[in-house]
Structure to design on (320 residues):
């Protein structure tokens, strides 16, 4: 059985089980790297020790993060259990990757305003939602029109991390710009429909359940790409959302113009959202729900980066 045929089988099973496209790409990449690590040996001819040796190599030689090692393990377990249908009888215990203890980069309120002040148009609106709602970049870019509720002041995030839905706030400060943006998106959508490519990809198998939904206004992306493109899965020529790379470039350029030397990425706005809410006295459980964290321990990292340098200790240099 050739490597190409095996990867095609993996792709087919991933799509049949409705895995996200990014997960599909990641799993295929890990499986290819695993095969090349073992000199193109077929996975069916390898067992638990071979998986352990590869994962140990990632930890010791590549110095990957624990989450990266776990993703590689998940991809290989999927390969053996779901595609090859081969049981793994022994527990897989590679040398674990070292868990880093880096604190997240957080902007001050002044720095956040300075960066936003150097953005404009759609990228400004996106970053306002990242900072004002605590969204992940992908969550923001995959928002649909129907996910906005102006009456209740809410945004619904569908199939976020862990395939979970949640609700977060819709800031009053962004409403006017968001409504203007919707008008321009509606015009572009109507032009696309007239040109015959006004459809979008629907989550899971909704295209079969609701055949006409792909061309309905409510299912359109809030931040569509400037032009339609070919869907890598279906091959259909349709509207997609803005690519995250454009947001990253815009944020880096804005931070540079603002003279900020911190390592600023779009995700930093989410860190800043959480930290500033805690500084304002909001309950950590509330912040946890808004962020969509499964465990409050994940949210607690922001208590270590509150605006209290040196754990709130007063320096003796300040004594009079």
């Amino acid at each position: 059985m050739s490597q190409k045929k095996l990867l095609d089988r993996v792709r087919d099973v991933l799509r049949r089980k409705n895995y996200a496209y990014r997960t599909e790409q990641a799993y295929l990449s890990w499986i290819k790297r695993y095969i090349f690590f073992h000199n193109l040996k077929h996975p069916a001819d390898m067992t638990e020790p071979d998986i352990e040796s590869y994962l140990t190599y990632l930890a010791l030689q590549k110095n990957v993060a624990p989450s990266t090692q776990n993703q590689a393990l998940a991809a290989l377990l999927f390969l053996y259990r779901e595609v090859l249908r081969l049981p793994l009888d022994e527990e897989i215990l590679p040398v674990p990757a070292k868990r880093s203890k880096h604190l997240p980069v957080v902007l001050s309120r002044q720095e956040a305003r300075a960066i936003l002040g150097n953005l404009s148009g759609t990228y400004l609106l996106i970053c306002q939602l990242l900072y004002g709602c605590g969204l992940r970049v992908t969550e923001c870019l995959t928002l649909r029109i129907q996910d906005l509720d102006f009456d209740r002041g809410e945004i619904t995030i569908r199939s976020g991390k862990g395939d979970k839905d949640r609700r977060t706030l819709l800031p009053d400060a962004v409403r006017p710009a968001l409504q203007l943006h919707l008008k321009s998106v509606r015009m572009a959508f109507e032009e696309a429909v007239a040109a015959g490519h006004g459809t979008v990809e629907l989550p899971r198998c909704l295209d079969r359940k609701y055949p006409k939904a792909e061309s309905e206004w409510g299912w359109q992306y809030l931040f569509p790409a400037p032009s339609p493109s070919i869907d890598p899965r279906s091959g259909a020529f349709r509207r997609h959302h803005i690519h995250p790379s454009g947001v990253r470039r815009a944020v880096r350029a804005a931070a540079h113009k603002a003279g900020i030397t911190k390592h600023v990425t779009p995700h930093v706005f989410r860190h800043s959202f959480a930290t500033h809410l805690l500084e304002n006295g909001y309950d950590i459980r509330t912040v946890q729900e808004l962020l969509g964290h499964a465990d409050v321990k994940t949210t607690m990292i922001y208590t270590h980066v509150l605006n209290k340098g040196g754990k709130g200790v007063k320096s003796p240099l300040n004594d009079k």
Summary: The mean pLDDT is 89. The first helix runs from residue 3 to 16. The CA atoms of residues 213 and 219 lie 7 Å apart. The beta strands are 148-149, 154-157, 166-169, 229-230, 237-238.
